[in-house]
Amino acid sequence: MKYDFKWYSDDKRLNVIKKGEVVYLTSPIFDDFTWLNNGVSTRLGGVSTGVCSTMNFAYNDYDDTNNVYENYKIFCEACGIDIDKIVTTKQVHSNTVVKLSKDHKYRSISEKGCDFQGVDGVVTNVKGATLFAFSADCSLIQIVDPVNKAIGLCHSGWRGTVGRISQNAITLMSESYGTNPKDLYVTICPSICPECFEVEEDMIIEARKGFKESDYSRIYTKKNDIKYSFNLWEANKIVLLEAGVKEENIMLPNLCTKCNPNTLFSHRNSGLKRGTLIAFLSIK
Fold first, then answer.
1. Which of the 8 DSSP states describes residue 194?
2. Cβ(33)–Cβ(148) under 8 Å?
3. Could you tell me the pTM of the whole model?
4. Is the CB of residue 181 less than 8 Å from the CB of residue 244?
């Protein structure tokens, strides 16, 4: 299957990796960290069919359970992930973050369910555990502390962004592992771009509550009497900067899920009848 990507601007920014039929993306900002495994899936290289073709990670009503599990096996083999130590959450668009401890009891990824209910972010310093987060337009944020060898992974849609979930993750990493935000490297994974993310005024009213008035022009633009464009990438960047992360250590994705229907799943393109992408992060 062809896997050309439509990049948001001229520079592609992310590494495109092909292992067999599996195509996934990694962040060049993490390239020097040989102890780290990171990536974001595409919809290429799996066995699912129809609206979920082919690399779908969601156990949903539109895909066969056996196909989803086979996708996990194929993807984990390609990316060097221990399938028996995957950590997932039941994402609810919250700003709640939890810590994964070394005594965590891993569940089988072959079954529906998750490790943490009602949670949208996980941090850890446990070697071998692979954090997974799911999306089909929302931003997934990979946070890496190379000094203390700790990581965090957050699902950050507009509610999580307004609720500053990435800041909550950084705070928990600081309390748990001694993380200094100035040492962090962060990647905002492929998600919906500012032009494609159209919202109405009720969302803008809520979004204003989480940002300073001086930032409004950076995070949204009025298109007409009803619609606004919301810049999820820039909003998350503002949250990270205010949490103390250096600007040069923040990687924006430059890749829109909605603009790439052949290679990435998008809720705005397909609604619920679709597959789901994942971002992963682990300490080897």
1. T
2. no
3. 0.97
4. yes
pLDDT in tens, the chain (284 residues): 557 899 998 777 899 999 999 999 999 999 999 999 999 999 999 999 999 999 999 999 999 999 999 999 999 999 999 999 999 999 999 999 999 999 999 999 998 899 999 999 999 999 999 999 999 999 999 999 999 999 999 999 999 999 999 999 999 999 999 999 999 999 999 999 999 999 999 999 999 999 999 999 999 999 999 999 999 999 999 999 999 999 999 999 999 999 999 999 999 999 999 999 999 999 99
Task: End-to-end CA distance of the chain: give it in Å, rounded.
Answer: 31
Distance from C-alpha of 267 to C-alpha of 254, rounded to nearest angstrom: 18
Please, what is the Cα angle at 238 between 235 and 243, to 5 degrees? 130
Instruction: Measure the CA–CA gap between 138 and 93, rounded to whole angstroms.
Output: 10
Which two structure tokens, joined as six digits, stand for 46? 């799996």
**3-state DSSP assignment of residue 154:** strand
Residue 275 DSSP label:
-
CA 247 – CA 241 distance, rounded (Å): 6
Query: What SS3 class is residue 70?
Result: helix
Q: What amino acid occupies position 145? A: D
